[in-house]
């Protein structure tokens, strides 16, 4: 049995939309079978059809977890006694306030202690680092804060970039209610400065796309996706900041964005984690 409270963004949406978003293994066949058997309740009332739901509704479902979650085997790229780095697949949150399976919850079934040191968007793939003890987590969070751990992304964007490499500067505002961010070229109240460095790796003239290496100088929510879209070079497949017609043309359901490299570049002592200094973890 699972119980969930409907979040504001699902107000006046269909029950099926809500459940498919929260359970990555739920199929339409399983959903409609549960309706027929009246194994789903809204505010403790059994239902037999796909109804409209509202904010703060209590959804109770009597479906086995095996039919709700995908059986995900996370690829471990690097591991030692203090840290673990995985290659996160698409459609998986690093952490979540809902009860759906996340990379963290899956790993917590295997380790007595494990916590993420940073996050990736649900449909951004690539490297995510976890600490395997509290002391490591404290050190690594500080190193990320002080930019002594670098993350590089690779992405495919629409169009040809104006320069082969550049450091982009703008200002970002996060709208938590809409789960969106907005970019401004000038400072505004409530906006935070963002710096995004890109290098062109290759260009495809026929498809009018470019492959970029992105280094995050600042690390704000949706920064890469929103910043590139702001300069009219949205990431292919990005359903939130991209162009739907372009995404359909390339048959891309998810943004072509991957965190492919993590570098440890400590300027100060990392204590017992000093052995990580100058280490680079990379995937293709």
Structural account:
The chain is an alpha+beta fold and 284 residues long. It folds into 3 domains: 2-67, Structural Genomics Hypothetical 15.5 Kd Protein In mrcA-pckA Intergenic Region, Chain A; 75-148, 2-Layer Sandwich (Pseudouridine synthase), CATH 3.30.2350; 152-260, Pseudouridine synthase (2-Layer Sandwich), CATH 3.30.2350. It is 17% helix and 33% strand. The strands form 3 sheets. Strands 7, 8, 9, 10, 11, 12, 13, 14, 15, 16 and 17 form an 11-stranded mixed beta sheet that branches. It has a 4-stranded antiparallel beta sheet with strand order 1-6-3-4, with no helix packed on it. It has a two-stranded antiparallel ribbon with strand order 2-5. β7 (75-79) and β8 (83-88) form a beta hairpin. It is globular. It starts with a strand and ends with a strand. The mean pLDDT is 95.
CATH class of the largest domain: Alpha Beta
Largest sheet: 11 strands, mixed
CATH topology of the largest domain: the name is Pseudouridine synthase
Number of helices: 6
Question: What is the strand content?
Answer: 25-35%
The name of the CATH architecture of the largest domain is: 2-Layer Sandwich
Q: Report the CATH superfamily of the largest domain.
A: Pseudouridine synthase
On the 0 to 100 scale, the average pLDDT is: 95
Number of strands: 17
Dominant shape = globular
Number of domains: 3
Give the fraction of residues assigned to helices.
10-25%
List low-pLDDT spans: none
Secondary-structure-derived class: alpha+beta
């Amino acid at each position: 049995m699972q119980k969930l409270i409907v979040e504001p963004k699902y107000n006046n949406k269909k029950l099926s939309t809500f459940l498919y978003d929260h359970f990555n293994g739920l199929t339409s066949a399983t959903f409609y079978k549960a309706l027929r058997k009246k194994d789903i309740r809204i505010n403790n009332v059994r239902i037999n059809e796909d109804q409209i739901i509202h904010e703060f509704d209590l959804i109770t479902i009597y479906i086995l977890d095996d039919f709700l979650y995908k059986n995900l085997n996370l690829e471990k790229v690097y591991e030692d006694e203090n840290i673990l780095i995985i290659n996160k697949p698409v459609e998986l949150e690093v952490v979540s306030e809902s009860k759906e399976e996340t990379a963290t919850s899956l790993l917590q079934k295997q380790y007595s202690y494990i916590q993420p040191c940073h996050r990736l968007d649900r449909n951004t793939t690539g490297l995510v680092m976890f600490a395997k003890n509290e002391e490591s987590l404290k050190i690594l969070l500080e190193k990320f804060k002080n930019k002594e751990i670098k993350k590089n992304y690779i992405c495919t964007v629409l169009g040809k970039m104006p320069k082969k490499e550049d450091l982009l500067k703008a200002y970002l505002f996060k709208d938590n209610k809409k789960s969106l961010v907005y970019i401004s070229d000038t400072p505004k109240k409530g906006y935070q400065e963002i710096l995004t460095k890109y290098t062109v790796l290759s260009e495809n003239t026929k498809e009018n796309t470019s492959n970029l290496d992105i280094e995050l100088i600042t690390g704000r929510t949706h920064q890469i996706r929103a910043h590139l879209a702001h300069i009219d070079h949205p990431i292919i497949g990005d359903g939130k900041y991209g162009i739907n017609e372009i995404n359909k043309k390339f048959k891309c359901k998810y943004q072509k964005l991957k965190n492919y490299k993590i570098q440890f570049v400590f300027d100060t002592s990392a204590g017992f984690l000093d052995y990580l200094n100058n280490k680079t973890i990379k995937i293709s």
